[in-house]
Write a structure and sequence with these properties.
98 residues, two-stranded antiparallel sheet
Length: 98
């Protein structure tokens, strides 16, 4: 297994991460990550198959409408970039608290 996490210096929480089983090829997409939102994104494919998925892990603290709004802005970028990454789908999981 491989664990991916963002390198956030000013995070208000424990952070987010993606744990990937070794049968998947994983490529972190740090250009989608913004400092204001505790999130990480990667593109994964099973054994090099052509079906690739964009995975995201997100944490939004309670009572943080500004961070939720920045997350929504970030999602607009993710949705625009996903076709450029040749992804068959997008999976976003997290603790949204909003």
């Amino acid at each position: 297994m491989q664990f991916y996490k963002p390198n956030k210096k000013n995070s208000r929480c424990g952070g987010v991460g993606i744990l990937v089983k070794n049968v998947f090829k994983c490529f972190r997409q740090s250009f989608l990550e913004k400092d204001e939102v505790d999130a990480i994104y990667s593109v994964d494919s099973l054994n090099g198959k052509r079906y690739r998925y964009l995975l995201g892990s997100v944490y939004i603290p309670p009572n943080s409408p500004q961070i939720f709004e920045k997350f929504c802005d970030q999602m607009e970028v993710v949705l625009k970039e996903a076709p450029n990454l040749n992804c068959a789908g997008i999976r976003i999981a997290g603790d949204f608290n909003a």
